[in-house]
Design a protein that fits this description.
The protein has 405 residues and is of the alpha/beta class. The chain contains 15 helices and 12 strands. It is globular.
Length: 405
């Protein structure tokens, strides 16, 4: 299926000389995106580090590119060279840097990868300024509605659009990873999940040098699954697994790096008696959550997380996702900030019958968020622009999510 990331990468290649880096979870569709771009580039090469033949060519160094692409010709569109899973090579940054510096004027360069690509881009990055990063997320409501997306530079929010009941239910039940969603079969979903979990904990953790701790980290992941949407209690987890608090923190960071989970910090600026430290945890794959309430909140969290990454990656500003909680246990599920200022505040409920949370108004008075909404999972779609509402309102989840990314 076509992902809107394809048009974003093509737009970058049309206007910029930087390489494009795609990072994200296993089986989220990075390789498919890369291969689909071939239709736009008559001169195209694809190398995968996991392929032994491709590996020998890559080890020949940047000069090997000249054997497969007309790198010295002025062509339109430029040839495209794709390097898949290249981060598994210990000197991959040196190799890619040499290729970019030698051929950026005549060749478009695409690099894809999972855990290590994102881990190794942090700190002392010799590739700084030579690439733009795009974080690839699972499918969302908007991506099912609009496989090509155009965002206004002044506002990253789109107009609402109705998604079919079957598509929304399929997305909620089977998750946003393309293969199980498109199959829509429970038996295939169960087998696919077992395979993905095995790859995640056996292969990805092995690549990160955690082979001796795999069983314990897998146990931690089990506990995190049942604590999704809740505050992290490091001491409690440490006691259950019989390791130190610091070890738990380090392992959670590892699980974040392999896209098993993500954590959100509390927003505390201008919040009276704010909670300052404990984060909340969510899973990249909401479909494995059995509790409906947890799955609903994680479903919305994943959409918001995708939105803030996407808006930031394409240059609309600096967006981040937080939650709100004070020491009196008043809480709002999510806060999106835009350029470090509160922007969209969201409370999630499973039922339309639940009253508007008073915490929305309480926190809005303190932080002045522009948009304040309570989204109801079971509310039928309504043709209303959620971001024109002047005061805190209850809106259908399907309407709200269709205005994100």
């Amino acid at each position: 299926m076509k992902r809107f990331y394809e048009s974003i990468v093509e737009d970058q290649f049309a206007h910029h000389e930087q390489a494009a880096f795609l990072c994200g979870p296993r089986q989220v569709g990075k390789t498919t995106i890369a291969k689909n771009l071939q239709s736009h580039h008559p001169h195209y090469v694809y190398w995968n580090w996991d392929n032994i033949n491709d590996r020998s060519k890559l080890l020949a160094g940047p000069e090997a590119l000249t054997k497969f692409l007309p790198v010295h010709a002025i062509l339109a569109p430029k040839p495209l060279a794709t390097f898949d899973e290249i981060h598994k090579y210990k000197d991959w940054k040196t190799l890619i840097k040499g290729i970019i510096d030698s051929y950026k004027d005549s060749v478009n360069i695409l690099v894809t990868g999972s855990a290590k690509l994102d881990v190794f881009r942090k700190g002392g990055d010799s590739l700084m300024g030579r690439y733009f990063l795009y974080r690839i997320h699972p499918l969302s409501v908007v991506e099912l509605l609009r496989p090509q997306i155009i965002l206004d530079e002044l506002s990253p929010l789109s107009l609402p659009q109705k998604i079919s009941k079957d598509e929304l239910e399929g997305l909620f039940e089977f998750g946003g990873f393309p293969e199980p969603f498109l199959k829509g079969e429970k038996s295939f979903f169960n087998r696919w999940q077992r395979l993905r979990q095995n790859q995640l904990f056996r292969e990805d953790l092995k690549e990160l040098g955690q082979i001796q701790k795999i069983s314990l980290i897998e146990t931690l992941a089990f506990f995190l699954k049942h604590q999704s949407t809740q505050l992290l209690n490091y001491t409690n987890l440490a006691n259950k697994i019989r390791v130190s608090d610091q070890t738990i923190r380090r392992w959670i960071a590892i699980l974040e790096s392999v896209y098993y989970c993500f954590t959100l910090q509390p927003w505390h600026t201008n919040v009276t008696r704010s909670l300052l430290k404990e984060p909340k945890v969510y899973l990249w794959d909401w479909s494995i959550l059995e509790n409906k309430g947890q799955r609903v909140e994680n479903f919305v969290a994943s959409h918001l997380y995708k939105a803030v990454h996407f808006w930031t990656d394409i240059g609309l500003g600096s967006f981040n996702l937080y939650f709100l909680r004070d020491k009196d246990q008043r809480e709002v599920d999510f806060l999106i900030t835009k350029n470090d200022k509160p922007w969209i505040m969201v409370e999630v409920k499973t039922s339309l019958n639940e009253p508007l949370s008073p915490n929305l108004m309480h926190f809005q008075k303190q932080i002045g968020a522009e948009h304040v909404l309570q989204v109801a999972f079971d509310a039928p779609y309504v043709e209303v622009d959620c971001f024109t509402l002047q005061s805190p309102k209850i809106v259908p989840m399907s309407t709200f999510l269709s205005q994100l990314v």
